[in-house]
Design brief:
Rossmann fold; two-stranded antiparallel ribbon; 31% helix; binds 1-O-phosphono-alpha-D-ribofuranose; 9 helices; five-stranded mixed beta barrel; binds uracil; Uridine phosphorylase
């Protein structure tokens, strides 16, 4: 994120609040945000967080600390960026740094981990009376038919069947929620990316899986129940359905932002291509056998 972006966003005339969708919250004397080690009685949340406009989340604690230090320098805030304090130091589940109007939080790996964090984050923003907050998931992913290093801005998050939906089991029943993301913001970010040099960026669908290995078609896990050909066939279908990258949190992120009236963006770097562009082209022209495609088409550097 560049400071010019935050200035442009700050000048917008949005006015939306965070909408928690839980009638029981109002009746509670105290709300303990257990995994943040924060609470409505123990902390003055409006004073601590009332000015937050951007929340950036990513899996790893070290990355989110480094990101917060980067933003500290970008925004030319007073003090030493090396000395920023982890607001959640009372727990080692997540880390949280506040730098000006930006909150940087780690969420761990996978849907259950980010989902717990999002419940407590959304309640925190609500208790702090925050307005016009934009949530960014800044993550890593495997690219599908992209050059390694390409940034993918998600138009929507899709499940393993390429549907824009997230299924949550509640009291033994499946509830399905939409995972469409804010198209206007995605286009706006794509526009900003053209102002940066050497940052290939595309908009595409992001597939969210519940597993890093078999779930993403990897052949190098402890278990593998499919052939290289079946893997390529699945990735080809994913590509045809508009999938450009694969990660593990976007569906619940998109679903929870939508339900709670928050603008959400998923922005991931494709670390490697699980199905690189050259191989895609070759497959299209049927110049290589599937076996050769598999051998030269897959590089796992994660
Ligand atoms: O790089 P982050 O954002 O942590 O996320 C990606 O990396 C993890 C897998 O290595 C998954 O959680 C996936 O979504
Ligand atoms: O291939 C990858 C890389 C990062 N994260 C994922 O979930 N998959």
């Amino acid at each position: 994120m560049r400071s010019s972006y935050s200035q442009r966003v700050a000048s917008r005339v949005w006015s939306f609040t965070v909408q928690v969708k839980n009638p029981h919250l109002d009746t509670m004397e105290e709300d303990i945000l257990y995994h943040f080690s924060l609470g409505t009685k123990t902390h003055n949340l409006p004073e601590m967080f009332g000015d937050i406009k951007f929340v950036c989340v990513g899996g790893s604690a070290n990355r989110m600390r480094a990101f917060a230090q980067f933003i500290h320098q970008e925004l030319q805030l007073p003090g030493n960026s090396e000395e920023i304090r982890d607001i959640c130091e009372g727990t080692d589940r997540y880390c949280m740094y506040k730098v000006g109007p930006v909150l940087s939080i780690s969420h761990g790996m996978g849907v259950p981990s980010i989902s717990i964090m999002l419940h407590e984050l959304i309640k925190l923003l609500h208790h702090a009376h925050c307005r016009d907050v934009v949530l960014f998931r800044i993550g890593t992913s495997g690219g599908v038919g992209l050059a390694p290093g390409t940034v993918v801005i998600s138009s929507k998050a899709v499940d393993h069947s390429f549907h824009p939906q997230f299924e949550q089991v509640v009291l033994g029943k499946v509830i399905t929620r939409s995972t469409e993301l804010d198209e206007g913001l995605a286009n706006e970010l794509l526009q900003y990316s053209t102002e940066l040099q050497d940052l290939p960026t595309v908009i595409g669908n992001t597939m969210c899986t519940h597993d890093f290995y078999e779930g993403q078609g990897r052949l190098d896990g402890a278990l593998c129940s499919f052939s290289p050909e079946e893997k390529l066939e699945y990735l080809r279908k994913a590509h045809e359905a508009g999938v450009r990258n694969i990660e593990m949190e976007s569906t619940v992120f998109a679903a929870m932002c939508r339900v709670c009236g928050l603008k959400g963006i998923v922005l991931c770097n494709a670390l490697h291509s699980v199905w690189c562009r050259d191989v895609f082209v070759a497959l299209q022209h049927r110049r290589l056998t599937v076996g050769q495609i598999f051998t030269c088409g897959t590089t796992f550097i994660h």
